[in-house]
Amino acid sequence: MRAGRKSTLLFPSVGRHTVAGPVSPPAGQVLFGSGTLPDAPSRCSVNTAVRPTPARQKPPLTGNKPSAKQVQQAVLALLADRGTGTACPSEVARALVPDGWRAMMEPVRAAAASLQRRGKIDVYQHGRPVHLDDARGPVRLRAADVKDVDHRRAPQRYRIGRGEEGVLTVQPYKGELLPLWRFATPTEAKASARALWKKFLEYGRVGDFVGMDMARKYLQMGFTRSRRYANHVGGRKYLAGTRTELPRATDAQKAESAEIFRTYWQRALKHRRYLLLRRRHETT
Prior knowledge:
The chain is mainly α and 284 residues long. It has 2 domains: 68-148, Orthogonal Bundle (Arc Repressor Mutant, subunit A); 155-282, no CATH class. Helices cover 40% and strands 8% of the residues. It has a 3-stranded antiparallel β-sheet. Strands 1-2 form a two-stranded antiparallel ribbon. Strand 1 and strand 2 (15-20) form a beta hairpin. The chain is globular and about 60 Å long.
């Protein structure tokens, strides 16, 4: 290479440089690819300062912003598909604008509040009904007409949901099972658990999965409610309007009731007929 002539060379870890005069490659590298790899990652000799990480911002909406009517339609469509199950507003936002869903959270909550005022949907927070206009923090949404559906005739509308979800709304099973549910004393809890277990088996014999799952939920609710009353006087776990847990207490009778229900609940979860019907329901 002639002195004083500019040349352009490529080094694997340095990039493209224009130099003047004779040059030599960085340590551990060769000019013409003999197979030698860099000893360690190298940096350019300029602008090596670490750039600060920018503050996290909500991603902007891409494309046209959905109208209020479109957002309401999206909420109703998702809840219709969810059946007896609930949905988080963020699920609607993600369905509308996957890449900029955070910016859609306020419009989705506003649409849900409007639908609630019109009686189209119900809103829950920590499992209890709330008015979305007054609620702060995470909520769950559910179609209001689910209470009017006969799920024995329309089992496809039923969604298993989380825990005891739908236990006080799914008809006609609520009317059949709620009168059997008692946990005030171990004697009442034992009679209640046996009666619910009997209904669980009856539903299974006729292939009624929704009935079996609802009976399972009442057994589970017998355990959770008894346990709550065993740990907290009056069954109130949190200070009103807060998530501050109240002091714990010990109620031996309620604790015994909880164990009675827990035994039957766990039996239901492992019941072969229940598991078979559950798989069929989830795949149809």
